[in-house]
């Protein structure tokens, strides 16, 4: 358990370092909104192309820890490329490397967690994963904000590289014998031969999975560009102080996630999945509209509380829904990878389209566009998505 906790903590630190702060870093090198959006989109596309194969690889291979270690090394190399040469082609190559290899993290962590604790305790473990992840993001955001303000924007990428060491130690703390290989793939208790597991084609026959996929894509389409756009908005005329403002945004969001995630894991088996996810979908359009109503930095940072509510709930419950819908198939991680692939498409298009809208019509139009997509996602989920928690799984059902 301790190894999993620390692994989630340090991987969050790693991904924070090459995430929303990248937009501010590139803006400091005279990249405009469209170029920044393109760079973020390229990383997303690389993740799209590798996400489903990554999930299938996690299902297929026993050595989940080695896959995470390889992904960590690739992220470190990509961070150094951005730090030493923030030119167009160098950044694009780094984004391909980072996006393509870090796609292994989500399915591998979920697989290890499910394999270690089993299905009965997976709700609570997923909530704990998100709590550790969010705590890592808070710690990382504070460190990165201070480094960016007191040292230089470039130092944040060296910080990311340094985090490789504790990440490897965390992996070592997780013993291979602790991971049930069959359970980690979502197979029935007692095991399922890998060659008899359902193929990915079964995904397209499951109507509920398709509805969930559509809703998830729209959720991330509306959500993915909001924080980078806010970072660019805060960066206007702020200089190096923009790093501190972005750090404050990330800390606010991640503090709420850390506070909310474990509670979400507890309530997911009591309330069911749908009521919780409706909260996550519902706060997103409100957040987008609120960004257009103020230019006060403190108020904009405070609005990030809603981001924490949405992300804290969605990050926990969405994985549980996928586990519900793939129960006994042996294709939990493959399906998770396929859905994250589709999510990546939505998120990447979001970065590009929102950047273009802001470039031509301003930040207000960009945020309202994203809020409208979020409102549609809420409606689709409310009317077409059923509850996926089986009656025997819930405490009150």
Here the CATH topology equals: Growth Hormone, Chain: A
What is the count of helical runs?
Answer: 18
Which structural category do the helix and sheet elements fall into?
mainly alpha
Shape: globular
Task: Please write the CATH class name.
Answer: Mainly Alpha
**Percentage of β-strand residues:** under 5%
- Which percent bin holds the helix content? over 70%
Brief write-up:
The protein is mainly alpha-helical. The chain has helices spanning 2-17, 21-27, 33-60, 64-84, 88-102, 105-117, 122-150, 155-162, 164-173, 181-184, 207-224, 226-235, 241-267, 273-291, 297-302, 304-325, 332-361, 363-384.
How would you sum up this structure, described in words?
The structure is a single chain. By secondary structure, the protein is mainly α. The chain has one domain (2-188, 199-384): Up-down Bundle (Growth Hormone, Chain: A). The protein contains 18 helices and no strands. α2 packs antiparallel against α3 (33-60), α2 packs parallel to α12 and α14 (273-291) runs antiparallel to α18.
Can you lay out the helices and strands and say which pair or pack?
Layout: H1 2-17, H2 21-27, H3 33-60, H4 64-84, H5 88-102, H6 105-117, H7 122-150, H8 155-162, H9 164-173, H10 181-184, H11 207-224, H12 226-235, H13 241-267, H14 273-291, H15 297-302, H16 304-325, H17 332-361, H18 363-384
Helix pairs in contact: 1-7, 1-8, 1-9, 2-3, 2-12, 3-5, 3-17, 4-5, 4-6, 4-8, 4-9, 6-7, 6-17, 7-13, 7-16, 11-16, 11-17, 11-18, 12-13, 13-16, 14-16, 14-18, 17-18
